[in-house]
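From: lab user (bench 3)
To: helpdesk
Subject: output format question, protein + zinc ion

Hello, I'm new to running complex predictions and I'm not sure whether the block I got back is the full result or only part of it. Here's what I submitted:
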Amino acid sequence: MVVKTQRDDVTWYECEGCGMMFDDESDAEQHEENCDHEDPSYIQ
Ligand SMILES: [Zn+2]
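Helpdesk reply: Thanks, we reran it on our side. This is the complete output you should expect:
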């Protein structure tokens, strides 16, 4: 999930899973789709 945060009057978009920050919402959403932080499908 992407979390919106305000810092120094700049809006950041943070990947809730790994904490990576983006200044562009679409970048954050794209990362979030590919982020493997909470996807259990690879667990064997
Ligand atoms: Zn992530």
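A quick orientation on your result: The chain has a mean pLDDT of 87. Let us know if anything else is unclear.
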